[in-house]
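Our platform keeps sequence and structure together, in a single record for each protein. Such a record has a labelled line for the sequence and another for the backbone structure tokens. This encoding replaces a full spatial description with a residue-level series of whole-number codes. Below, we set out a record of this kind in full and without editing:
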Amino acid sequence: MLGPIAVWVDRFGRVWVGATNSRVQLFTREGKFLLSLNETEGDAPGQFHLPHSMVMDSKGFVYIADASNQRIQKFAP
């Protein structure tokens, strides 16, 4: 079954959603779609397989726990 497995609100009020379809998407607090970090599932940089957790550091970098690929990916602000 496909669906969200991680939801996080960043310091700007944007909503990040990681899902079982291996996508990470960003929305406004009102629910307007802003962007997707990846288009396909995989193990290449920028691709995910079950992204489970997300956090932003003090400089705006976003870190995503890519569970099934057993890694953390870092994205520039």
Observations:
- The longest strand covers residues 4-9.
- The beta strands are 4-9, 15-19, 24-27, 33-36, 51-56, 62-66, 71-75.
- The CA atoms of residues 56 and 70 lie 19 Å apart.
- The chain has a mean pLDDT of 92.
